[in-house]
Design a protein that fits this description.
Shape: globular
Number of helices: 8
Order of helices and strands: HEHEEHEEHHEHEEEHEH
Strand order of the largest sheet: 5-4-3-6-7-10
Structural class: alpha/beta
Helix content: 25-40%
Oligomer: single chain
Distance between the termini: 37 Å
Strand content: 15-25%
């Protein structure tokens, strides 16, 4: 498995920068080599989505979508059943990518921005092919960049270039994940997969548009974090700067401050997880100090095991 030390920087340059193109093509090779053979199959392994083609009925399990109740089988067996659905032949995937200033941060092997680009590359590899299409919405806080959904590897590469080179917000401008997610609601798009890539560190004000999106799309949250988002090092005196507000604070890091920071960070992360679950979004967690490819493989393996377990419960 590759580790994050091999992840190049994508944030510098322009769309025509040959170094950026080379870096993204190298990333594509890494993703393809590591995922092919391990994750055989199409997007069914990423999200066991409902699709539109009816499949087999199985007994209802707590947490199943009641909108998929099979009333004829339920009446015949006197036991609640849901109808499994086979994913559509052609999938339209939409990436909502948070590129606010807090993503330009990393203390280990890479920045969260570069890790977010790598996550988008993995999603593209897992969903493109067979006529599937991909589009993206990139939000920075002071702009929302829309990339139309198209098929093909050339379009995927152009999409990744646009994501990587999107200019960060101006100083003092906070990210606006709410606006990025809400941009998927208008105009209404064909049913597909919506993937939200963010560190989710800001206010949790994006739950309502995400719930609205989940009523029409399968949704996935990709959480990109750095260890320093979760805990402070024991370094004594330190100067902290909020990347989005520009606020600067000097303090002495004590054991109490470290404990308070870690507790607050964990409480926020748990609330993010609960909010995503309420919106029907499983979460793929990636960190700058971990092997991100291994985390992707582990996530999909868990999803497939859950899907297979559901299909065998009869």
């Amino acid at each position: 498995m590759a580790d994050n030390s091999a992840l190049p920087s994508f944030g510098a340059g322009t769309l025509e920068d040959p170094k950026l193109t080379a870096a993204l093509k190298t990333l594509e090779i890494v993703v393809r080599r590591k995922l092919d053979g391990v994750l055989q199959g199409d997007h069914l392994g990423l999200i066991p989505g409902p699709g539109t083609e009816p499949g087999e009925a199985r007994p209802y399990q707590p947490g199943d979508d009641v909108r998929r109740m099979d009333w004829s089988v339920t009446a015949r067996t006197t036991q609640p059943h849901v109808r499994q659905m086979v994913a559509d032949r052609e999938l339209e995937t939409w990436l909502v990518v948070d590129m606010s200033a807090s993503l330009d941060f990393g203390t280990v092997n890479t920045t969260k921005r570069d890790l977010a680009v790598a996550a988008c590359a993995a999603i593209a590899h897992l969903t493109l092919g067979g006529g599937n299409r991909m589009g993206a919405v990139v939000c920075t806080g002071d702009q929302v960049v829309r990339i139309p959904a198209r098929s093909g590897r050339a379009h995927a590469l152009d999409t990744l270039k646009t994501i990587a080179t999107t200019t960060r917000s101006s100083d003092g401008v906070r990210g606006d994940l709410h606006a990025g997610i809400d941009a998927l609601r208008r105009p209404e798009r064909r049913r597909g997969l919506a993937v939200v890539v963010s560190d989710f560190l800001g206010p949790i004000d994006w739950d309502r548009p995400l719930r609205a999106i989940s009523g029409h799309h399968d949704v996935l949250g990709v959480e990109v974090l750095d260890p320093r988002d979760l805990e402070l090092p024991d370094v004594g005196e330190i100067i902290l700067r909020d990347a989005e507000s520009g606020q600067i604070r000097e303090l002495t890091v004590t054991d109490k401050i470290r404990a308070d920071f870690a507790r607050a960070a964990e409480e926020h992360r748990q609330e993010v997880q609960r909010t995503l679950r309420r919106c029907g979004a499983p979460t793929l967690a990636l960190r700058t100090d971990r092997d991100w490819i291994a985390d992707v493989v582990r996530f999909i393996a868990q999803r497939r095991r859950g899907m297979n377990a559901g299909s065998t419960r009869r």
